[in-house]
Each structure stands twice: as C-alpha cells, then as structure tokens.
C-alpha cells in the first residue's frame, strides 16, 4: 500500500547539500564505481533521452491513469503495460498466473543473476470510480496519477532510455508491473514472484518505484497484520428475545479493551480498528457483527504480542457473554493481511549505492520505514529499496489525487543510476 511511501515522498522539497556534506558517509569504492558508470557516454545518452521525452512520459501517464486497475482486477492495465514490454523487446514478455506483467532485459554476460525493478499497477479505487484525467501545466489530476502512475511510467521511461542508449548491464534486469500492492492485495504480486523458484534463486537485489519524489528511500519494512473479527449469534426480537447476547455489544467490549492498551514507546507500534459493521434493523438483536483491525510495528515481536491481546480480548468477551445464555455467540478471527518486517543493512552494497548516487546528484536520501512491495524481499534478506520516481504528488488515495512532473527528470536519473549500480555496468 505504499500508503506511507506515497504520502511521504512528496512532503519534502529537494534538500540540496554541498558535496562535502556527504563525503563522510559515502563509501569510496561505491562512489568511484558510480563515477565510472556515470561518466560513460551511453549513460549520458540515456539521460539525454529522459530529458527530451518528458512530454511523452506525461502523455503515457495520462493514458495509463484512464485504464482502471482496482484491486484484484488489474488485467486491463497489465495488458496495457505488456504492449510496452513487447515493443521494447523484453525477453519472455508476458503476464504470469497472478496477473503480474513481466519481461527480461538481458545482461551482457548472460549471468544467472537478476536485478528486479518493479512498480505496482493496482490502485485503491473501486471499478465505478469516474476517471477524467486533466492536465494543467506540469500537473496531472486523476485518481492514481501519482500512486502509482508515476512509478509505472517511470519504469517505462527507464526501459526506453536503456534501449535507446544501447546499455548492456552485467546482470539481467527483470521488469515487473505487479498486482496486489494496495490494501487487501496484501503484496500478492511480489509475493508470487518470490514464490517462483527460478526468480527466488536468481534475484540478487530489488528496486521498487512507488509514487513521486527523489529524497526518500524506504530501506526498512514496516510489518503489519490485519484481522477480520466476526461474531455470530442467533439474533432475535429486541423485546421478546432481549436476554440473548448481542454481537454488536460484545464486539464493542472487544474494541474498548484493545483501545486501552498502552502502545506508547519504542519500537513504534499501532493498532487500529478501521471498519465495523453489523445488524439489520433497529428492533432486532443482530445475528452478526464484524470489525477489521490493523496492527503495525517495525518489530515482529510487537505484532505477535498484539495478536495475542486481540485473540484474548475476543475470547474473554465471548465467554463472558455466553456465560448465562443458552444462545451462545461464536466467533472467527481471520488474518486478511500479513506483511513481514525486515530492513536493508547499512553495510550492504545497495545502501552504499544509494549514498553514492545521492552524492553524485547533490541530493540526500532520508532513509524511512514504510510498508511497501520491498517488505517481501527485505524479509527474505534480499537487498531492496523503494523510492519515488521523481516529481511531486498529493491527494494520494483520494479522487483529488495529482502528480506534478516538475523534478521528474532528477528522480529518474537517480533511479537509473541506482539500477545500473545494482545491475553492474
Ligand atoms: Zn503505491
């Protein structure tokens, strides 16, 4: 859901610092490797392509946002992206069983090792959401314009610039437009990629493009678990059956108990009740009540602790309600989301590469914690980072969402350099 990434990436303006500010934290070997890459003529040509095609990239973005991609119904947009992958000659360009669009940009040395670049193609918007993209100056107004219109067209632009400049990296680059990043998609697209043996054993690192911005790098995966709690009873008439347990009342006790837990302190941990539903008429004891809970923490053990609290609160409240009743309530607790935690080691070559690219471009990435597609590789100890694709955005996950291409070029240069550091060139 890159909720956090997408809302975070546009908050800050570029923080341009003098080069010597970064000198102390940049690995000399990473920086000299980057300088060698950035000085190559072909890389300049790729930059040139990005510079000259800003208009075209915006045109693709306007076309893309009009192709709906609600959760679990991303196929039309996957097919839209497939045309680009096929036209660019990616090897094995296709749509997999989960609905991801993918293809390989072959490396020069035909090595087994692969670098993955991905952008999620799903949106949070239901199928009936009216979409009428509007461009004003450098700004595109449309639901999903930034999240993840920016990431998807950023990925396409990088592919074109590589092709145009004839760049042959050492390792293969796997391009993926993945499904299932938002909400209850539960990272199913990227999870599927890593469940395939051929990818799990060959992917050496992973770059996620999500939303706008060029000053944030999500290197820590915020873990989360989501639960649907459902209480079911016999129901009845509000007057004649008044003694029977009421699922709404019992669910309210569960929520009250959980809301009294002390979650202050570090590591930051949160518990939210996001939806509640139940009942059918004002003069009926409801047959059912249900609520959805979201638990988050950077520490896996805190998530487990809260899960235990949730189970106990439900069990105790139901047992208490059933004590004097011959119309017992039953309950189910269903896990509807599970995003594993993990983090990128500061000593990893990918971390050094991010700092080296920063120094080269005269920017500084703020390392952040969020829940993104990078959770999956990070939890599997595959070096991974989620970054914005440049520009700015706002109104994320609302119908008033917008994307501003001002500054996109810098963001795409950053992504391209990072990708070449990962893939070797
Ligand atoms: Zn996103």
TrEMBL record:
Pfam annotation, one family: M20_dimer
Statement: the UniProt record of this protein carries the keyword Hydrolase: yes
Source organism superkingdom: Bacteria
GO molecular function terms attached to this record: hydrolase activity; metal ion binding
Domain Peptidase M20 dimerisation: 223-310
Keywords: Hydrolase, Metal-binding
Signal peptide: none
PANTHER family: ACETYLORNITHINE DEACETYLASE (PTHR43808), PEPTIDASE M20 (PTHR43808:SF17)
UniProt name for this protein: Acetylornithine deacetylase/succinyl-diaminopimelate desuccinylase-like protein
